[in-house]
Amino acid sequence: MVNKKRVIQFKTPVYVEERGTAVGPKEGSGPLGHGFDYVFPSLLCGEKDWQTAEKKMTEKAITYCLHKQRLKDNHLDLFIAGDLTNQSTVSSQIARNLHVPFIGSYSACATAIENCIVAGMWINGGGARHVLCASSSHIGGCEKQFRFPIEFAQQKPDTAQTTVTGAGAIILGRHQSMIQMTEGLLGKVIDLGINNPYELGAAMAPAAADTLLTYLQETEQKPSDFDLILTGDLARSGSEIFKKLLREHGVIVSENYDDCGVMMYGTNQQVLAGGSGAGCCATVVFGHIFNEILANRLKRVLVIATGALHSANTVQQHKTIPCIAHAVVFERRGN
Amino acid sequence: MVNKKRVIQFKTPVYVEERGTAVGPKEGSGPLGHGFDYVFPSLLCGEKDWQTAEKKMTEKAITYCLHKQRLKDNHLDLFIAGDLTNQSTVSSQIARNLHVPFIGSYSACATAIENCIVAGMWINGGGARHVLCASSSHIGGCEKQFRFPIEFAQQKPDTAQTTVTGAGAIILGRHQSMIQMTEGLLGKVIDLGINNPYELGAAMAPAAADTLLTYLQETEQKPSDFDLILTGDLARSGSEIFKKLLREHGVIVSENYDDCGVMMYGTNQQVLAGGSGAGCCATVVFGHIFNEILANRLKRVLVIATGALHSANTVQQHKTIPCIAHAVVFERRGN
């Protein structure tokens, strides 16, 4: 018999041994700015191109991870990383300097959580004790590659999202800590026919709803069992569609629901519908949310990271956008 | 204490439940052509663009997998896939039609074997019973994206490789079969400073040598313990460098060594140094090599898939090419 249950319960406990975050100036001056480890004062991070800037930012996040934990990279068993640049070269170039076995991943803006789930399974399967995961995005690199260079100052509709300039790193492992990753759920790809890359929130909302409904059904839990249900980066328009889709299934999420793309920026910041990018969920969760868990203001958080699996090429071909949402549960351990 | 051993021994046995391969006309008319499940008579596979052709080819390989096994996709617990298109959209579009939890992977031409190792760990960790993995490449899509459209008929040096038009799919799981995947080794990223994308064999050879030397050292085996040691796609020039690097460490591989990129094409075919691409190792191993194992002409094969983790962008920036090599052992079970 095939076990049809999709929710993975990590039998060997998986802990957040350490995390590090680095962001750009706009993210640093937003409402969560104080919770990041490092804020770069300029988008170029002292480099000459966006890609090298993103690499420097991710290396900064990883350095915070390793220094805080007093781990050297030779204590790591595995490095899992992915980003939005073509062929994920930011991650590969970082892997070159780490000298650690490397898994390249790609799940668009859901990459950080795909990485966590794969790391968790690796630890449960006995293949690793300490796994470093990283993911990132940079508005300069993303706009140039997916749309137009930012210097072009392209006009966009209100439903468009702003790519978060940020990198998040996390070490998951067997050393007990205050934050445990208890469960994971890999999403299925869902595509309800949206082909407009300025409507990514609407495109991704059905995948997020499917993942949440599957999780609640399989575990026989309800939204109120969590202090916070957090979607990856549906942003303002996508979050409303997400809540509406859930209501159609009789599931209400309201007070204990938020979205990383909404939380990242203040209402006074010009970001259209909110944030997105592989660095969005990574920095909000590994920064602000983990701070809240450590401060005992949150005890149990369900993170549903969303990703739009399109490219500049598929947009030009007017293809519809396949979307995915992966979920994990982070819980506070101890008092 | 951290276990520094990098070789993964799959404690829960992992079997090749099924495999499927589909290739383009040049690969079909090569010396391994009879061993593939399906040969498309034209590069466009009846479609209007290279990307859709690659998708159709991969779907064909997956269909062979599922039909031979009489499995429906709802028996699958997980789909792991990656390809060389920007943002790996060929794989994502296939995932959309499969309705199976999806992990997106990226390891350039080593993607097929990265997928196998992740699948094996998933099965060992208790997260899945049947995992479908796929990877692919298409000369039309790759040349357009990484270099110039093939219509441009660009001249290249003899060390350049020809992208294999091919897709390989495999179902790994717990159902006992004649072929078992017994061990895996994830590579470290190695970059000795080559930045010429027409020298990928030379760029990747050090990573392949590092992976083989690590494997032999950790397991205290010698090359003659295998019927075949097979590199992914070093092609002719890279294979010679690989053998030379090994000789410097006192390790001789000769009679029982071959390379997928060399094996794929005949000496009468115009392919420069040989084949490459995420579909190269996938089709040669899942097609020809598994046929040889089933026919009892090979019993124990070490596959070292190689990948060059560059992009068109990093080439334009004259950045050096980070390379990786992942290894797995496939063994015949039964008589």
Automatic annotation (TrEMBL), chains A, B:
GO terms for molecular function: acyltransferase activity. InterPro entries: SpoVAD, SpoVAD_sf, Thiolase-like. Signal peptide: none annotated. NCBIfam families: PRK08304.1 (NF006160), spore_V_AD (TIGR02845). This is Stage V sporulation protein AD. It comes from Shouchella lehensis.
